[in-house]
Design a protein that fits this description.
Two copies of one chain form a homodimer.
Chain A: H1 11-22, H2 26-38, E1 40-41, H3 43-47, H4 54-66, E2 70-75, E3 78-83, H5 85-101, E4 112-113, E5 125-126
Antiparallel strand pairs in A: 1-3, 2-3, 4-5
Chain A binds a DNA duplex (30 and 30 nucleotides) through helix 4.
Chain lengths: ~130, ~130
DNA sequence: TCCGTATATCGCAATATTGCGAAATTGAAA
DNA sequence: TTTCAATTTCGCAATATTGCGATATACGGA
């Protein structure tokens, strides 16, 4: 297959996944971090910091915009991107909520690995 | 190409991207949300909630584990997964930090769209 | 008007992800 | 010991992502 099955999930789950996914690339993390320093930047500015082609950076910006993480405004011929603080906050709060709502893991005890003979990774562990 | 260029980014950027990426699929968000309710679950349990093949769910669990989001322990023949609260907190704090550290966007003014004739999406906006 | 700059889009190739069924592995139960 | 249930891994096909160069669009300045 290859295509994600979408019919089962809630809109909120899909939206949250899309936002996390847009942050799931180091170039896009680097863009976010640059935008923390410089408030708003255009595509040309970012080329000096990130060693990717202009078209590639443009695509990454587009993906962050489509996920709602970034906004932009055009002044003259320049397109300035900025971080959408509300959306970043929503993602942060969602993850913080997970931290708060899950119960304690009762069995934090030591775990022994028992590697399989033929398989690359051990997937059975004895407690 | 297709492969992400990794040589430029910091270890922290790569790690954060990996963690966000692992959350960037609605099935994995659904898994996380189920684990908030039920503390720890095995692969078989999750099959009752998520309409995917068992092998597919196992892969999603593995990806969350590889990103550090989940841990697991084996009891008998069952493999129980649980949310790694510290790691979730790290991601949440990182995003909260972005929210706090960016400066205010000075130019929050209204934006006019000016769609191009031939191109699908308007990419020039007048302020 | 014509040229240069900025940027999104297109087309392509390489690689990664998603999903499934089948097979392999392990521990427990019969 | 044999069988069963739980799980990971493998192999495959379909689709998505990543990255680049080339191109098209839009604006501002000469």
């Amino acid at each position: 297959m290859g295509a994600t099955k979408m019919d089962f999930y809630t809109d909120h789950q899909i939206e949250m996944a899309k936002r996390c996914k847009s942050l799931g690339h180091p170039a896009r993390i680097a863009i976010i971090e640059k935008l923390m320093e410089d408030d708003q930047l255009n595509c040309t500015d970012l080329q000096f910091f990130i060693p990717l082609a202009q078209s590639t950076i443009s695509q990454h910006l587009k993906e962050l915009f489509n996920a709602g993480i970034l906004g932009f405004k055009v002044i003259g011929n320049n397109c300035y991107y900025y971080i959408n603080k509300d959306v970043i906050s929503q993602v942060a709060n969602y993850l913080s909520q997970i931290r708060l709502l899950i119960k304690d893991n009762k069995t934090e005890s030591f775990i022994y690995f028992k590697p399989s003979i033929k398989q690359k990774q051990p997937y059975f562990m004895r407690i």
